[in-house]
Amino acid sequence: MGIRAIIVDDEQKARNVLSAILSGEIPGVEVVDQAEDVPSAVKSIMRHKPDLVFLDVEMPGYNGFQLLDFFEQIEFSIIFTTAYSEYALQAFQVSAVDYLLKPIQIEAVELALEKYKARRGEPQRELLENLRQNLISSSVKKLALPTGSGVIFVKTEDILYLKADGSYTHFILNDGRQLMVSRKIKEYETVLTPELQFYRPHRSYLVNARRISEYIKADGGSVVLENGDSVPIARDAKDEFLEFLGMR
């Protein structure tokens, strides 16, 4: 079954580029309309009832997020298009919301559509609200973790530590839960920064320093988290990690 799409962007050149990619390079996608602002996008969505909306974030008048305020139920999926800063891109990544970085490339569109097809039909409002809150905050407050059963929202302050497992990452939380996510730990290291009190003392672990209860010198050094789990400290990371903890 084909995908009916609408492109919303205040820049005509950007709309034309994305439309050309979708119409000429991506089979199974029909661009049924384009809109230059949120009010015209709302009318277009109500008229055409698309499966997918490619939505620019920053537009004059209303921004992309305000489009959601016009609908009680979001019956279409959204892929954001953005030229946002590095921090904002991190907010997109940890909010499990699909996005395209301008200038848009064909390969990126293909990947975003693959993700859309895999999650087609899932409710989006909570994901989008989580993204909005992360973007307006000075730091990431909550992660949206895609698991085998759906998406679980986790406050960063509730994370004890992360453990690498090849292409997967295990999240160990203060309420006893352990969640496995099909992303590498490196992706979360760029978001859970020292400013959020997270540090990577070992290539397999990323710890929340606020949840450390004990430092042990023996056997090369390790830290104990609030749940009693022990995390080793790599020899080449020891001095910097102890300085981070204020112990040097």
What is the fold's blueprint, element by element?
Elements: E1 3-8, H1 12-24, E2 29-35, H2 38-48, E3 52-56, E4 77-82, H3 86-94, E5 99-101, H4 106-119, H5 125-136, E6 142-147, E7 150-155, E8 159-165, E9 168-173, E10 178-181, H6 185-189, E11 198-202, E12 205-208, E13 212-216, E14 222-225, E15 230-232, H7 238-244
Parallel strand pairs: 1-2, 1-3, 3-4, 4-5
Antiparallel strand pairs: 6-7, 8-9, 8-12, 9-10, 11-12, 13-14, 14-15
Characterise this structure.
Helix content is 29%, strand content 31%. The radius of gyration is 21 Å and the shape is elongated. The strands form 4 sheets. It has a 5-stranded parallel sheet with strand order 2-1-3-4-5, with helices on both faces. Strands 10-9-8-12-11 form a 5-stranded antiparallel sheet. Strands 13-14-15 form a 3-stranded antiparallel sheet, with no helix packed on it. The N and C termini lie far apart (61 Å). The protein has 248 residues and is of the alpha/beta class. It folds into 2 domains: 3-136, Response regulator (Rossmann fold); 142-244, Beta Barrel (OB fold (Dihydrolipoamide Acetyltransferase, E2P)), CATH 2.40.50. The chain has helices at residues 12-24, 38-48, 86-94, 106-119, 125-136, 185-189, 238-244, and strands spanning 3-8, 29-35, 52-56, 77-82, 99-101, 142-147, 150-155, 159-165, 168-173, 178-181, 198-202, 205-208, 212-216, 222-225, 230-232.
